[in-house]
Design goal:
Layout: E1 2-3, E2 9-10, H1 22-32, H2 37-45, H3 49-60, E3 62-64, H4 70-83, E4 89-93, E5 101-104, E6 110-114, H5 115-120, H6 123-138, H7 142-150, H8 155-159, H9 168-171, H10 173-196, H11 199-209, H12 219-233, H13 242-249, H14 257-270, H15 272-278, H16 283-304
Parallel strand pairs: 4-6
Antiparallel strand pairs: 1-2, 3-4, 5-6
Length: 316
Amino acid sequence: MVQTSNQRKTLTGLSPQTYEHPFDQKALISLEKMPGVSLMFNKINQYGIDRLLRFKFSGTSLKVNERNFPDLYDALLEACKIVDVQVPELYLKHGTGYIKILTIGANKPMIIINMDGLELLNHEELLYVFGHELGHIKSRHLLYHQTALILPGLGKVIANSTLGLGGLATNGIELALYQWVMMAKLTCDRCALLACQDVNVATSALIKLSGLPGKYINGMVVEEFLAQARDFGNYNLDNLDKFTKMLSFMEPMHPWTTLRTAELLKWIDSGEYKSLLSGEDITNNIEDKTEVTIEEEDHKEEEEGEWDFLNSWEKL
């Protein structure tokens, strides 16, 4: 690893396995084991979702480069260098009243940020939000992620069995997909922190993503937000009935900043973030831990049946 000019480390060869959140892995395993999920993605892919989304965003947004929006583009370049990702295309779309940023394109990724993000985020906070999107690229999330993005628009088509699947919500695939989208955010927030390498920046970025303009952010607001996040991190979701959980996670595109901050703080407190940033070789330990976890889960599933995310939050 080498130091950048602003003392942020360049994490050459960074593997997502070294920072992947266990909820992400568990939710993905649960999703991929569901009957019919392969058929769903194959059918949806036949519609050329990559091509359709690229057509939509490239046709309605401004392509960003080093000439027209140099500050914005420089932040993307720096984030890509730090977390070791090939630079994707970047587009700027109209404002919505709140910061919005997403990535589409499983074959050729493109990041789209809106005017609110351009106006409200400083350079360091842009590193955080770009790092989050680059995390999706590094972990190859985009096929599933963009499927979740377009599902609401295809709801009637799917419900009418045009894809040959019947109602997705009734067999659990849609819910499982939305749950995974939520958990994938937790992995990408870790990549985002590695990109900006400043907990205070990560906190201010997450507060702004929750909708609070920068002029209202001060020491007391940050302190209370962190206290709220830590309190939420101790919340026992098993106290909620399953229906309440289902309704909550049916809105995976919402920022969920308190939940995400709580999980990010746990990662920092564990010491794993500091170890990874300091250059310690934790790859072998992660691989060994992953192998043991998979073996344990396979054995557990044989005894108890398929893993149920909704009832397993506190057991991870």
